[in-house]
Design brief:
The complex is a heterodimer.
Chain A (H helix, E strand, L loop, with lengths): L1 H17 L3 H12 L21 E15 L9 E15 L3 E9 L8 H8 E10 L2 E8 L35 E9 L4 E8 L16 H14 L7 H4 E3 L9 E10 L2 E11 L4 E3 L3 H4 L2 E4 L2 E13 L2 E11 L14 E11 L6 E11 L2 H5 L15 E12 L4 E10 L4 E13 L2 E11 L14 E9 L1
Parallel strand pairs in A: 8-12
Antiparallel strand pairs in A: 1-2, 1-21, 2-3, 3-4, 4-5, 5-6, 6-7, 7-9, 9-10, 10-13, 11-12, 13-14, 14-15, 15-16, 16-17, 17-18, 18-19, 19-20, 20-21
Chain B lengths: L6 H5 L12 H10 L5 E11 L5 E12 L5 E9 L7 E5 L7 E6 L4 E5 L26 E11 L2 E10 L9 E7 L4 E8 L5 E13 L2 E11 L4 E12 L10 H6 L3
The chains are: A mainly beta, B mainly beta.
Chain lengths: 465, 257
């Protein structure tokens, strides 16, 4: 049965492609086979430019930062941590296929497990093939869904690696995932996308270090009490994942995107998991293990973007249907609605750019959660909705050699805050020196407040080649 | 018929002479009417020269195509420096509404629509803005023929253009020197919103390619900042056959037409 499912998926992809309305396929083929203008007699059709040339290309970045974690009581006990990193990208292009591999190495990983080192060292590795106008991709890769700027609810295809919480770039905190993707154009400005992941990988959550979540520390304390241990319990020794990674537990996604009359839009469906783990303590006494499990979800999403009067507007909205449709099963999360609404614009011509986005998550049937303290989503404060207002203001000055940026994220219900002013100096192309201060504020049990002891000052240097 | 002219794009166009007295709008229409190739493809080097004379070099590849309504689509692919490599930009001119503009940023791995007003932003940190690189409808501006004079070896019409809607342009006015025999602007002065001279564009090298007069080197000098940008066409082809898939958001994402 499992075997037949594996075979069936690629066939299903082909069936879906080949059964798109004939008129659309015919139009697409016709448009792709024609050229925008016929070449004049004697005009060479061969092109030039690096983007078209087959061959091997490589690029990369050398980066090093030195981070000061400020001890709140005494400056002498503050900790400096220096961390170099090397990125190397290789790209092999042929007429109808490409291979892309991105390696990454940080010496600080040497104490990690082999699996973790491999996962982080191969940042991406995939092949891309072109069959007519259809694009096939397969491998260990990152795909971004949704119209938000680094804030999403529909970007469901890759797990998040919280090893540096949200202090690194959006793509750096997305972990690659084995997947296959097919993109098929429907006319010039519409596109159908199909994705299959044979294995769904959960989010990677640090169990030690400055970005260990408060929930893990609280769990360790709770387990020590529960098991009657005199010494602290390390979460890394007791957490066990349920069998998530089986062949039939994959992720399937389909997305249609397009653009017309100044609007970009898209609809999508994905059958995947909520990659954030749930803790099951029901077997703790017998096994002295804490089991992690994950909820299956169906996601129905819409997205859109447009520009008007200098504003760039964007929207993502999704309905996340779990197996607990009525909200009565305390072991399964309730269905929920999530959205991102955002805009940005230059405050004046060539002036600072202001970017504001609100991300909201609203679980449904919260009254049933609130009545059952054993419900996996139960909260003592009764606040089940989550809204984060994220924004940044940025500009370049001094002949574009200096860029300043202030980023903030504010938890509206939890009243917690992350604020990060930064200054980047680029004396010449591809070489940057950046200084930033990242401050977390709020209560210990809040998204940002849990890291208030991990606020830091950082200086980094990078060179791209 | 769409009537449009851009600072850089307009410099590519060919001209036919006129023996009749013209007003400012008619001069600009003549510039706009110059027959050109249906497509263009250029490998462009940009030297950004700061106020201290330090030079940073960028390399981009530009593709344009005009449809049967004379509406233009343009794709720009950034090749160097490494920090912007594989960034791709698409602008689609529309009739009766703002252009559609998208940019693909490899660091975000997604195609992002950008507002037309962002056309006032610097193009790759240069002294050109995105709008400078695009066409502009002739009838979005009022044009006044100021005088006729010789600039270098070119007898010119001198035309002042200002946006009918002041919000519709990043400049308060532009003064263009249009070479009479070529119908091509050989110099443009650009004034900021306060009416002060901000930038001067000059055409340094003109050649004939495939029968079309083509500017091969242009300098944009920002007189307020003391910076300048040298834009050199290292390769240029008219009427190359370009696949229609090139001018799509899909191309921005995959790099394959």
């Amino acid at each position: 049965m499992v075997r037949s499912r594996i075979c069936a998926v690629p066939i299903l992809l082909w069936i879906l492609i080949s059964t798109t309305p004939f008129s659309i396929s015919a139009t697409s083929l016709k448009e792709d086979s024609r050229e925008s203008t016929p070449a004049k007699a004697g005009v060479p059709s061969a092109t030039f430019g690096a983007s078209q040339e087959p061959g091997l290309a490589w690029s990369g970045q050398v980066w090093a930062n030195s981070r000061l974690y400020r001890e709140k009581n005494t400056l002498e006990e503050s900790v400096w941590q220096t961390n170099p990193r090397v990125d190397l990208s290789l790209e092999v292009k042929k007429e109808q296929a490409e291979l892309k591999v991105k390696f990454r190495w940080e010496p600080s990983w040497q104490n990690q497990s082999t699996d973790t080192i491999f996962r982080r060292m191969i940042d991406e590795a995939y092949v891309r093939g072109f069959l007519g106008s259809t694009v096939f991709e397969a491998g260990y890769m990152k795909v971004v869904w949704g119209k938000g700027d680094d804030v999403h609810v529909l970007d469901l295809l890759n797990p998040t690696d919280y090893y540096d919480f949200v202090n690194n770039s959006y793509l750096d905190r997305r972990a690659s995932q084995w997947m296959m993707r097919v993109m098929h154009p429907l006319g010039e400005m519409h596109n159908l996308e199909l994705v299959w992941e044979p294995v769904t990988t959960p989010d990677h959550i640090p169990l030690e270090g400055p970005w260990k979540p408060y929930a893990i520390s609280a769990l360790e304390g709770h387990l020590q009490t529960l098991l009657g241990f005199t010494s602290p319990v390390a979460a890394s020794e007791v957490l066990v994942s349920d069998q998530l990674s089986t062949l039939i537990d994959g992720t399937y996604g389909i997305r249609f995107t397009g653009s017309s009359h100044g609007f970009d839009y898209g609809i999508l469906y994905a059958y995947t998991y909520n990659r954030e783990p749930k803790v099951d303590l029901s077997r703790i006494i017998q096994t002295q293990k804490v089991y992690l499990s994950y909820d299956r979800i169906h996601c129905f999403g819409i997205e859109g973007a447009t520009a008007w009067e200098g504003f760039n507007f964007r929207l993502e909205g999704g309905y996340f249907l779990t197996n607990d449709t009525k909200g009565t099963d305390p072991k399964v999360r309730n269905p929920s609605v999530g959205y991102v609404v955002g805009m940005d614009r230059d405050l004046w011509t060539d002036g600072p750019n202001l970017n504001l986005q609100v991300q909201g998550v609203l679980p449904l049937h919260t009254d049933k959660i609130d009545r059952n303290p054993l419900d996996v989503e139960y909260r003592g404060d009764g606040k089940y909705t989550r809204h984060i207002l994220a924004g940044h203001l940025s500009d370049t000055i001094l002949e574009n050699k200096v860029k300043w940026k202030v980023s903030t994220a504010f938890g509206m219900e939890q009243q917690d805050l992350r604020i990060a002013p930064e200054l980047t100096y680029e004396p010449f192309d591809d070489f940057q020196i950046t200084a930033r201060w990242v401050q977390y504020l709020g209560n210990r049990d809040t998204t940002f407040g849990q890291y208030k002891d991990s606020s830091f000052f950082e200086v980094s240097v990078s060179y791209r080649f | 018929m769409k009537r449009s002219i851009g600072i850089v794009a307009g410099l590519f166009l060919f001209s036919i002479g006129s023996l009749f007295a013209l007003d400012g709008r008619e001069v600009m229409l003549q510039v706009d009417k110059r027959p050109t190739g249906k497509t263009s493809h250029a490998l462009v080097r940009m030297d950004l020269i700061d106020s201290k004379g330090q030079v940073n070099t960028r390399s981009v590849e530009m593709f344009t195509v005009k449809d049967e309504k004379d509406l233009k689509k343009m794709v720009i692919v950034f090749h160097a420096p490494a920090s912007v490599k594989d960034t791709r930009y698409l602008a689609v001119e529309n009739e009766g509404r703002d252009d559609d503009k998208w940019i693909y940023l490899p660091a975000l791995k997604r195609v992002r629509r950008i507002a037309a007003s962002e056309g006032g932003s610097s193009f790759m940190g240069s002294d050109f803005t995105y709008d400078d690189m695009s066409d502009r409808d002739v009838d979005r501006d009022n044009h006044k023929l100021l005088r006729e004079e010789t600039l270098g070896s070119y007898p010119c019409y001198v035309v002042e253009s200002s946006a009918k809607d002041p919000k519709d342009s990043q400049y308060s006015k532009r003064i263009s020197w249009i070479a009479k025999d070529l119908w091509i602007p050989v110099k443009i002065e650009l004034y900021d919103k306060k009416g002060n001279l901000q930038k001067i564009a000059t055409m340094d090298k003109i050649d004939t390619i495939q029968g079309f007069v083509t500017p091969l080197q242009t300098t944009m000098k920002n007189v307020q900042k003391g910076t300048s940008t040298l834009l050199v066409m290292e390769k240029f082809v008219w009427d190359e056959s370009l696949p229609s898939g090139l001018f799509t958001t899909r191309y921005l994402e995959t790099g394959k037409p």
